[in-house]
Design a protein that fits this description.
InterPro entries: RutC-like_sf, YjgF/YER057c/UK114. It contains four helices and six strands. It has 131 residues and is of the alpha+beta class. The chain has a single domain, classed as RutC-like (60s Ribosomal Protein L30, Chain: A), CATH 3.30.1330.
Length: 131
């Protein structure tokens, strides 16, 4: 797989994401459902703690990628949904550092939403990965 960043502007690169990516030669595509701060047995975790919820949502995202023999390095698209954008921003560096360590800057959209499917959940991550 070959990836080429598309950035008609450069400000997004400073924030850790590309405006677009052209992917050539992919053989497998993984569409990842929304990952939240749920335990392995399906219980919501860390009620009211957006930093802990973000960490667990990232871990759950990585688990799905790993099960498909992929990693964060394979992400080409990442959607971030949160019930509190302002509360998330001080902790966003955790996600940015994980993506940076994977040497990837997937196209990313962050959306503030009124609520998520599971009461108490404040963050949800979904994405697309190719290998």
């Amino acid at each position: 797989m070959e990836r080429s960043a598309v950035n008609p502007v450069t400000w997004s690169q400073e924030m850790g994401f590309n405006q677009g990516e052209v992917v050539v030669g992919e053989t497998r595509t993984l569409y990842i459902s929304g990952q939240t701060a749920m335990s392995a047995d399906g219980r919501p975790e860390h009620d009211g703690d957006i930093a802990a919820q973000l960490a667990l949502a990232i871990a759950n995202l990585e688990a799905v990628l790993s099960e498909a023999d992929m990693s964060l390095a394979n992400l080409v698209r990442l959607n971030v949904y949160t019930t509190d954008v302002d509360a998330l921003f001080p902790h966003y560096g955790l996600l940015a550092s994980k993506l940076g360590a994977a040497r990837v800057a997937p196209t990313t959209t962050m959306l503030g939403v009124s609520r998520l499917a599971i009461p108490g959940q404040m963050i949800e991550l979904d994405g697309t990965a190719v290998a």
